[in-house]
Amino acid sequence: MTIGVVVADDQELVRGGFAMILDAQPDIEVLAEAGDGASAVEAVRRHRPQVVLLDVRMPGVDGIEACREICSSSATRAVMLTTFDSDEYVYESLHAGASGFLLKDVRRDDLVHAVRVVAAGDALVAPSVARRLIADYTRRRRSPSPGRLAALTDRERETLTLLGRGLSNAEIAAELVVSEHTVKTHVSNVLSKLGLRDRVQAVICAYETGLAGT
């Protein structure tokens, strides 16, 4: 099945470059480009892509607001485009529903891989940039709230702890000495019980509740 993508960035060369790379893939089709957040929201509404790439900083409606609106009103999954400098806004996009982040200087193969991963329902939590952003955000802005975890079984709490460390399903399976199928069930239960959209939000929750790093 072809993965539909919308690319939104106010820099035409960056936007066009990403679009060209993705459109060259046999399983990916760029349905539209947008130069600001409002146009991105409208493009998603019109084309219903599986994935939208959103620059964090755009004129008018920025990427965070666009992400919030898109993720709350559609099944489209958002990946933020950012730099690793002092971009404070990237933290807020986590709670807006973003499924991951890409640096503007991302390699061609990593860009394509990221789109496929997010389209498949996973999230970009393994790269160190995502974990560092999440850890810094939650350490500075959130107090532990372990009461949120009351609905989880002991094994589900262990799974959430390992998600907070950025482990993949295979790595969690090895850590817990269970099958990957069992891990998928635990992850699904964690997301469902805690009302989380995906693994990125699970990582946030692990930090917010004090599980990460334990």
Automatic annotation (TrEMBL):
The Response regulatory domain is annotated at 4-119
> Taking every annotated instance into account, which residue ranges of this chain make up the domain HTH luxR-type?
145-210
Quote the protein name from its UniProt record. Response regulator transcription factor
Q: Does Phosphoprotein appear among the keywords? A: yes
Instruction: Output the PANTHER family linked to this UniProt entry.
Output: TRANSCRIPTIONAL REGULATORY PROTEIN NARL-RELATED, TWO-COMPONENT RESPONSE REGULATOR
* Keywords associated with the record: DNA-binding, Phosphoprotein, Transcription, Transcription regulation
Hey, what's the signal peptide range on this chain?
A: none
Mark the residues carrying the PTM 4-aspartylphosphate: D55
What Gene3D superfamilies does the database record attribute to this sequence?
3.40.50.2300
